[in-house]
Amino acid sequence: MSTNRDTSVPWSTALLTAVAAVSWSFLAMSATAALALHLLGADAAGSLGPMSAAAVVLSVNGRVVPSGNAGILGLEGARAEAAVDIAPLGVGLVGALLLAWIFLRSLRSAG
Question: Whose CA is closest to 35, among 50, 47, 58, 52?
Answer without folding.
Answer: 52
